[in-house]
Design brief:
Radius of gyration of chain B: 28 Å
Distance between the termini of chain C: 46 Å
Number of domains of chain B: 5
Number of helices of chain C: 18
Strand content of chain C: 5-15%
Structural class of chain C: alpha/beta
Largest sheet of chain B: 5 strands, mixed
CATH architecture of the largest domain in chain B: 3-Layer(aba) Sandwich
Oligomer: heterotrimer
Helix content of chain B: 40-55%
Helix content of chain C: 25-40%
Chains: A alpha+beta (162), B alpha/beta (657), C alpha/beta (574)
CATH class of the largest domain in chain B: Alpha Beta
């Protein structure tokens, strides 16, 4: 793991404090979350105490300290989506996956994240799975959408096993 | 087919550069010898085409509606049929509710737009159009073109009710041109304003021009942009910065995203002019990470502009240097606040700093900095090119120019629009927006995001500008308009915003951190059911309500930054205009719109229930009793007001009040 | 200078200063909570808001600059209402356990609630429930339920001490203050200095008390309980009993301790003299044999941990001398035990320290032999005041008494250890004697006195010119270490005190951190030095006797075994 982190850090030589957030973003891009080791390494690289980095990382919605699921479901909770029933959508997803927002399922197949607004208000309510948008969703459609990803992963895993 | 267009995209157009460098750019087109340039423009803008062109609206909204799949289908179709046609990905025309939208332009014919295209109907649309018979129910309208023949059967797009009342300046190119091709922007007179500014204006003159144009910040407060620039220009410093705030955090606003995805060079040109005006040679664009497509477009556009020499060293031989750096935000609404944004760029927690010192004096890294939002900067090129008078002729006494709004919520035409300041809300909602769908009644429009307010029916004839909105307890904000119908509960809306604000509060100052949380708790207490409520809880609930407005006043009065100072607005404005709904929640313990579930009372009509048992099997709380084939009833103490029984009943026997 | 109007009165203001600074000078009180003198204002708490004519909102006086002709109302209805609401909001989120709180009667939040007449709970209580009490550190307890997030601890730790063990974590109403990864304090980079405890306006940060262990030992017939008191304690303890800062109550304190039942009362200043004998010898040894220089003092345990975790390359520069507390602890359980014929295991050795890091130091595994710790319990000045009050001892009825032999005699040089520069001054006096055989002409070394964070001097000792630096506040120390790293070579001896101002402003001292009190405490030490005759450590007869009877010579075999120690590189989350 350290090798990979070092590679990321090498891309930002003689960097200063203002590189902190880009570095955290780069690490999360690779791992899907911020491993503790990476935070420590970034601290050494930028000469910043770990407490400061942790403070910054926990301030922003983007950063997480737990690995994401293989399918990352983002639920928009913007105003337009709210008015069009996104809370019910979120509840349906939570019920279907049996996890709460911010959690990753035990089989690591799914994780849910609530985001403030995805900027697709004209198509509210929207969710995205692995960056793929689904517009005008309603609670009834949820399991249908999630099944697509469940099947994809399952067949991929079976293929890998076979 | 595509190789040529890619080459064309990246090939420098010396003709443009020459024109920008050496000619009087504004009058240039009239001169002799420019026919070649005109011809080039016409070619780039596809005024006439030699083979069919298919435009696909591929901004985020189009993509989420399925434009990517349509794109694949189109390409497959063209390949299968070995048809020679050009496919162009454009930004968003703004009519999100009709997405995915594609346009088809046949040689010699006008460009036609089609709505709600999907993989099932796209082939049919293309084939019918090629056959000279565009399917009438799918067309949105055709474009006007002097050099092409119009379709007899198709109306003009600019007469579509969604577009007709609009005045598109900032959005002029969005959805029309290929945002990835700088030549298309150039052919639309792009970068002429920058050339004019660099070659014939001093920084002070630019600040003056922008100030006199009356341009005010489009991101919230509405401070005069030229004035802000002047402060920074007058502050001496070896290093200054322009920061473009593209951290569009207001839920319900997506104008910045659309501008960047549809016309990124307009923003870059605005940034370059602003930087020159204050003496900055470094500019940051702080953009939300949730906008991957916009970020990609921006990166491409910067690379192209650098290649053409509009960004970089010695821009257009003027000696002016500018470097633009993209910083991705990491998800914090408060970073829309200037000083918080500065902290975030510096790699710190995005917590606001006390002002003064103002950023124009001591901003990013302690240097004079100006922070402008995307729409503000995108207005600048046209002001410089066409002059302050052109701009100030539009709008109201205090608010000049146009404003982009994002229409969403319970409205027929959701999407992005641009209207002159002073347009009435009624016109926006009922003309452009097409009114409320499903025959429902209008209740309110929320404007200005979490800092704004809700405007009731009796006030929708106000002419929108910064001041009138304040008078009715809202604010311009970044321009999100979320429409609500009779099925929306205003207490629930207020609760939604309080929840948002208290989660997004940075937590630094006490009034905002603790105050907004208490306001949320008070709102929660009045929307919670009475079950299990002790007498003491009831007392606390009433006490909380009594203190709600006093608390709101203190939060406004004593918070550190703009976020806190406006945080109570959604509650105050709904309290002002929809007091009756609050009273129904508090005194009658009812939610008139049927949204606040815990206040709903479900019962089964004896005469309608046939005893099918569907509801009792579905009830998650086991609250429905009754024998088969005889009427059922709901045990009030057990009912959790989930509504499952109502949904499942085929006989409309379950009623709710 | 220009004029501004405050509460309908014209006062003078200096361009560039804040409203708070102008009104304070004019004798108008505006309450503050997060404000810290000499640090940039954070503007977080909003307690100091005032109304300014023409301004849309209230402005924070701590950060808002004065402008000519400004009309300010510090006590307008609006301002008072805002302050009151802020206090009420904090109280709604605060546990109602004032009666059980260490800061009862001495709490800024409680004080504000009283000043603003809060008599009713206006906002429903939403007590923090899920906060853990972090009692893992041997020195400091963090009780997040009582934290009002003013951020003073974060700022002291980062901006003054350059440690940054803690920071704000999360956002909005979920915000907490915590070490990296929200781990506990004991595995963080905290150096236990306790400056955060002094800064905290509430009971969210406090020392980990050892009162119960001491009380139990005092009532245990099998235990022989002795106590030592550090040089800085006698000049600050009086403040806990309502006296003004800078009053020395050494004799009364000793009398009170004796009443409490301690078998012997020893003076840590005695072992400060002993430290000087060892440390000056070590310095002379290093200078003459080409040892590692500059040598750095080792009596401040926060500083030691700081070097171990942030600057391990400098470990060899640290003097190997144990601190005076540990030296005396070791001597008590060896020489004294032997001399009095007491089983060292039965001795319960207590120390009163101005310091919470001393609790950590006493628990370091190297600080003892054969499973017997040199020191069994460390009490802060504040704790000892509680012990005295609990026993109902009335200072007025006491007559001053003196400490017990054989460790009761001290020179004023040892006493000077209590303030920044004291160790240096004492060391120079003795080193001069050791090298030249003669006493310094004027014993006072002016250059190393005073409260400045970094003081440097060139001291002539015979033919030698010795470069010395005196640093207080570890944040200042890191600057000098960086200079040395970058090649600075003119320094031979550096005194470092963890806390700004030295032990008189230590993390275990009475909770008044204003510069005036600290100055008064320092002058109390200088007065003692000026008014007594035994002013050099090497002249201390009891120290000489200890060498004659037991240790034989400085840096000798016994010394190495009992009085010297070693340090380890520490991996912490930093």
């Amino acid at each position: 793991m350290k090798e990979e982190i070092r590679k990321i850090l090498e891309k930002h030589p003689d960097s200063k404090r203002d590189s902190l957030i880009p570095l955290l973003q780069a690490v999360q891009e690779v791992y899907g979350y911020l491993p503790k080791d990476a935070v420590v390494e970034i601290g050494k690289h930028l000469n910043l105490p770990a407490s400061k980095i942790y403070g910054v990382a926990t301030f922003y919605n983007q950063f997480r300290f737990q690995p994401k699921g293989k399918n990352h479901v983002m639920v928009c909770r913007g105003t337009a989506c709210h008015v069009k029933g996104s809370l019910a959508v979120l509840e349906a997803i939570e019920q279907d996956l049996k996890i709460k927002a911010g959690q990753t399922s035990r089989d690591t197949l799914f994780s849910i994240e609530v985001v403030a607004c995805m900027g697709a208000c004209g198509l509210a309510p929207v969710i995205s799975v692995n960056g793929e948008f689904h517009a005008n969703v309603d609670p009834q459609k949820i399991s249908e959408i999630l099944d697509i990803y469940r099947e994809e992963k399952k067949s991929a895993m079976e293929a890998a096993n076979a | 087919m595509h190789e040529a267009s890619v080459e064309q995209k990246m090939a420098k157009m010396p003709l443009f550069l020459d024109a920008l460098l050496h000619e009087n750019v504004c009058g240039g087109a009239d001169k002799k010898g420019d026919s070649k340039l005109e011809e080039l423009k016409s070619q780039i803008l596809r005024r006439t085409v030699s083979r069919p062109v298919i435009y696909v609206g591929a901004a985020t909204c189009g993509l989420s509606a399925g434009a990517d799949k349509v794109l694949v289908a189109i390409k497959k179709y063209l390949a299968d049929k070995a048809l020679d046609a050009e496919v162009v990905e454009v930004g968003c025309i703004g009519l999100c509710s009709e997405e995915p939208i594609i346009d088809i332009q046949l040689p010699g014919k006008a460009r036609v737009s089609f709505r709600k295209v999907n993989t099932n109907n796209v082939v049919q649309i293309i084939e019918s159009t090629l056959a000279g018979n565009p399917p009438a129910d799918m067309t949105l309208g055709q474009f006007r073109g002097l050099e092409s023949e119009k379709w007899e059967s198709v109306t003009f797009f600019d007469e579509h009710p969604f577009l007709k009342p609009q005045k598109r300046c900032v959005l002029a190119n969005c959805g029309i041109i290929d945002p990835c091709n700088i030549n298309e922007y150039l052919a639309n007179d792009g970068y002429q304003a920058l050339a004019k500014a660099l070659h014939s204006m001093t920084p002070a003159e630019i600040c003056q021009e922008v100030e006199l144009s009356g341009l005010r910040g489009r991101g919230g407060g509405g401070f005069f942009t030229g004035k802000k620039w002047k402060f920074a220009l007058q502050t001496s410093g070896d290093q200054k910065y322009i920061i473009c705030n593209a951290d569009e955090g207001d839920p319900g606003a997506f104008m910045d995203r659309a501008v960047i995805e549809g016309d990124p060079h307009r923003l870059l040109e605005g940034i370059a002019i602003a930087s020159y005006a204050i003496g900055a040679n470094k500019a940051y664009i702080y953009i939300r990470a949730e906008y991957p497509l916009a970020i990609r477009r921006l990166k491409e556009a910067i690379a192209q502009a650098e290649d053409y020499g509009f960004i970089g060293e010695n821009i257009l031989d003027s000696g002016f240097n500018l470097h633009i750096i993209i910083k991705m935000g990491a998800g914090a609404f408060v970073c829309g606040e200037e000083t918080a944004l500065i902290n975030s760029i510096e790699g710190k927690r995005g917590m606001p700093r006390p002002r003064p010192p103002f950023p124009a004096i001591s901003g990013l890294f302690g240097k004079p900095s100006v922070i402008n939002n995307v729409e503000t900067l995108a207005n600048v090129p046209a002001i410089i090119q066409k002059g302050k008078d052109w701009f100030s002729a539009m709008g109201t006494a205090g608010s000049k120019g146009t404003k982009v709004f994002a229409l969403s919520g319970k409205i027929s035409h959701t999407g992005l629009i641009e209207v002159e300041m002073g347009t009435t809300l009624r016109q926006i909602i009922f003309e452009i927006g097409g009114g409320i769908p499903h025959g429902k009644k209008y209740k309110a429009v929320q404007i200005g995001g979490p800092s704004g307010g809700c405007i009731p029916e009796e006030k929708i004839d106000i002419e929108i500008d910064y001041e009138t909105l304040k008078e009715v307890g809202a604010m311009m904000g970044s321009g999100g308009l979320v429409v609500m119908d009779e099925n929306t509960c205003m207490v629930d809306v207020a609760k939604f915003f309080m929840d948002f604000i208290q989660r997004e509060s940075c937590g630094k100052c006490i009034p905002c951190r603790e105050g907004t949380r208490h306001m949320l708790e008070i709102l929660e207490s009045i929307t919670h059911g009475r079950k299990n409520e002790s007498k003491l809880d009831t007392l606390e609930r009433f006490k909380g309500i009594m203190h709600l407005s006093r608390l709101a006043d203190v939060i406004k009065d004593a918070s550190l930054c703009g976020l806190g100072q406006t945080a109570p607005n959604p509650v105050l404005s709904t309290l002002r205009w929809f007091r009756n709904e609050y009273e129904a929640h508090i005194y009658e313990r009812k939610c008139p719109s049927g949204v606040c579930k815990e206040l709903l009372h479900f019962s089964i009509l004896e005469n309608k229930c046939v005893g099918c048992t569907a509801c009792s099997r579905k009830c998650p709380a086991g609250a429905i009793m009754g024998a088969k084939k005889s009427p059922h009833y709901i045990v009030p103490g057990k009912c959790i007001s989930c509504g499952a029984c109502k949904d499942v009943c085929k006989f409309n026997a379950v009623v709710v009040e | 200078m220009f004029e501004i109007e405050v509460n309908n009165k014209i006062i003078e203001a200096v361009p560039g200063e804040t409203i708070l600074s102008a009104v304070t000078r004019a004798g108008i009180k505006v309450p503050t909570l997060c404000y810290m003198k000499d640090l940039a204002p954070s503007g977080a708490c909003r307690i100091c808001v005032v109304e300014v004519d023409g301004m849309k909102t209230l402005v924070p006086s701590c950060s808002y600059p004065v402008q000519e002709g400004m009309k300010i109302h510090t006590n307008s209805k609006r301002a008072i209402r805002a302050r009151k609401t802020v206090i009420e909001l904090l109280l709604a989120n605060h546990p109602d356990d004032c009666l059980y709180c260490v800061r009862n009667g001495n709490c800024r939040l409680q004080g504000l609630a009283e000043e603003y007449g809060i008599r009713e709970r206006r906002f429903p209580s939403s007590k923090k429930k899920d906060h853990m009490l972090d009692a893992t550190s041997p020195s400091i307890i963090r009780d997040q339920a009582k934290c009002i997030l003013c951020g003073k601890c974060v700022r002291v730790c980062e901006e003054i001490q350059n440690v940054a063990a803690i920071d704000f974590v999360k956002r909005g109403s979920k915000t907490v203050i915590a070490p990296a990864f929200e781990q506990s304090l004991n595995v963080s980079s905290c150096i236990n200095c306790g400056q955060c405890v002094l800064a905290c306006p509430t009971g969210a940060l406090r020392e980990k008390s050892s009162l119960r262990e001491v009380d139990e030992a005092l009532h245990d017939k099998d235990k022989y309980v002795v106590i030592q008191h550090a040089p800085a304690v006698s000049v600050t303890l009086a403040e806990e009993f309502g006296l003004r800062p800078g009053v020395d109550i050494n004799g009364l304190m000793v009398a009170a301790l004796r009443q409490l039942g301690f078998k012997k009362i020893f003076d840590t200043s005695f072992s400060a003299d002993l430290t000087i004998m060892e440390e000056a010898s070590e310095l002379v040894h290093r200078v003459t044999t080409g040892g590692k220089l500059p040598m750095m003092t080792s009596c401040s345990p926060g500083w030691i941990k700081y070097v171990e975790q942030f600057y391990p390359d400098f470990i060899d520069n640290l003097s190997t001398c144990k601190s005076p507390q540990q030296m005396l602890g070791a001597i008590i359980k060896s020489y004294f035990a032997e001399k009095e014929g007491i089983d060292p295991e039965k001795i319960f050795s207590v120390s009163i320290m101005p310091c919470v890091a001393k609790k950590f130091e006493a628990a370091r595994p190297e600080m003892g032999r054969n499973n017997i710790f040199d020191i069994d319990a460390v009490l802060t000045t504040r704790e000892v005041a509680r012990l005295i009050k609990m026993a109902g001892i009335d200072f007025d009825s006491l007559t001053p008494e003196t400490a017990d032999l054989p460790f009761g005699t001290r020179s004023t040089a040892g006493k000077l250890f209590g303030g920044t520069g004291g160790v240096m001054e004492a060391a120079i006096r003795t080193a001069h004697y050791m090298i030249t055989g003669k006493e310094l002409k004027s014993l006072m070394v002016e250059d190393v006195r005073g409260l400045k964070g970094v003081k440097e001097a060139k001291v002539k000792i015979g033919d030698l010119e010795v470069g010395v630096a005196v640093v207080s506040g570890v944040g200042n120390a890191s600057k000098i270490l960086e200079e040395i790293k970058n090649g600075r070579k003119d320094l031979h001896f550096i005194e470092v005190m963890t806390c700004p101002g030295g032990c008189i402003a230590g993390g275990g001292q009475p909770l008044s951190t204003d510069q005036e009190s600290i100055k008064a405490r320092l002058h109390a030490l200088y007065n003692i030095d000026h008014s007594e005759t035994l002013r050099t450590s090497h002249k201390n007869k009891d120290v000489q006797k200890l060498y004659d009877e037991f240790l034989k010579e400085p840096l000798g075999h016994k010394s190495h075994e009992l009085l010297h120690t070693h340090y380890i590189k520490r991996e912490v989350l930093s």
